[in-house]
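Dear H.,

Thanks for agreeing to be a second pair of eyes. The structure we're designing against is below in token form, covering all 212 positions.
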């Protein structure tokens, strides 16, 4: 693993408190008597997303400690977890349609997850490129997590759910792209992610304006 990224797994640990904070009022507070809208499919989605985040944390830590055997084993497991995660989006999207809403966020999340994971698998033998696409996947989870923190906990409403979290993601990707380019590292995966997230944000903004 590149020296500059040796501690990325420790940084990913921030997803644990952030996820708890973001979903505290809507998921953890109602437990164990969940509201009717928090059904089995929601629990499955929460479980698969949690397993995926756990893998995102564990894999770079294993690489940091040169535990390549376990890293490869979990890499094979991650394919099944990823498939379960993608499938878990479907009931959530159907429920959005049932409420007369178009699940734009979930649709784009699925597209980006499949794009970045597909590219990560394609470049699995090139550790530098593979790692950057996995980091791009981790950034997808910032949207729904920060969206709930800003939109619900901080009370910034619609703006918090849409624009702010994704602008933060774009800023992170710009910084990572420029940093890697300046240091002569492989920045191209971040550029792909930056373009993809930019399209995501523009689509969100365009549809949000049309619905307003």
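And this is the sequence the design step returned. I haven't edited it by hand at all.
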């Amino acid at each position: 693993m590149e020296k500059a990224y040796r501690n990325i797994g420790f940084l990913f640990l921030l997803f644990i408190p952030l996820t708890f904070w973001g979903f505290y009022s809507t998921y953890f507070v109602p437990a164990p008597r969940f509201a009717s809208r928090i059904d089995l499919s929601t629990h499955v989605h929460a479980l698969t997303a949690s397993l995926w985040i756990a893998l995102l944390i564990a894999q770079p830590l294993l690489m940091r400690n040169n535990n390549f055997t376990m890293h490869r084993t979990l890499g094979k497991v991650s394919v099944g977890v990823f498939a379960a995660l993608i499938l878990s989006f479907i009931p959530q999207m159907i429920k959005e349609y049932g409420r007369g809403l178009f699940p734009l966020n979930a649709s784009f999340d699925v597209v980006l997850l499949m794009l970045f994971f597909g590219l990560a698998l394609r470049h699995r033998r090139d550790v530098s490129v593979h790692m950057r696409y996995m980091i791009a996947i981790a950034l997808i989870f910032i949207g729904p997590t920060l969206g709930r923190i800003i939109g619900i906990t901080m009370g910034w409403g619609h703006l918090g759910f849409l624009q702010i979290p994704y602008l933060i993601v774009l800023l992170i990707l710009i910084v990572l792209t420029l940093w890697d380019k300046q240091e002569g590292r492989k920045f191209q995966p971040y550029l792909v992610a930056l373009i993809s997230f930019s399209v995501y944000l523009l689509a969100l903004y365009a549809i949000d304006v049309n619905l307003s």
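Two observations from my side: The chain has ten helices and no strands. The CA atoms of residues 86 and 130 lie 20 Å apart.

Warmly,
E.
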